Amino acid sequence: MKAFLVTAVIAVLFIVTMAFGARNNQLVEVNYFIAQGEFALSWIVGAMFLAGFTISWLMAFAIIVRQKVTIRGMKARLAKQTSETTS
């Protein structure tokens, strides 16, 4: 539940940022490897914020899954060792 609330707060902040940025109509030229384009500064900032948030969320999810797998393995070893010592 806590993770959901944090995600909801981040989403609201993202929407508020985009609303404030929508009032800034400044165009920025972006040169990338294949081509170039002109985009509104607010959209670039919003897209980079969203990309960073998504990447960090995926990395955190991978770490949590790895830890849960490790814990499950350790619990299985503990149960096996406990059953060996009691028998």
Short description:
InterPro entries: LapA, LapA_dom. The chain is built from two helices and two strands; from the N terminus they run αββα. The protein is mainly alpha-helical.
List the helices and strands and how they pair.
Blueprint: H1 2-22, E1 27-31, E2 36-40, H2 41-86
Antiparallel strand pairs: 1-2
Instruction: Describe the sheet with the most strands.
Output: 2 strands, antiparallel
Helical residue percent band: over 70%
- Give the total of domains: 1
Count of distinct strands = 2
End-to-end distance, in Å? 42 Å
Secondary-structure class = mainly alpha
Please explain how this structure is put together.
With 87 residues, the protein is mainly alpha-helical. It has one domain. It contains 2 helices and 2 strands; from the N terminus they run αββα. It has helices at residues 2-22, 41-86; strands spanning 27-31, 36-40. The chain has a two-stranded antiparallel sheet with strand order 1-2. α1 runs antiparallel to α2. The longest helix is centred in the last third of the chain and has 46 residues, at 41-86. It starts with a helix and ends with a helix. The mean pLDDT is 86.
Give descriptors for this structure.
87 residues; mainly alpha; two-stranded antiparallel ribbon; 2 strands; 77% helix; elongated; membrane; LapA_dom; cell membrane; Probable lipopolysaccharide assembly protein A; transmembrane helix
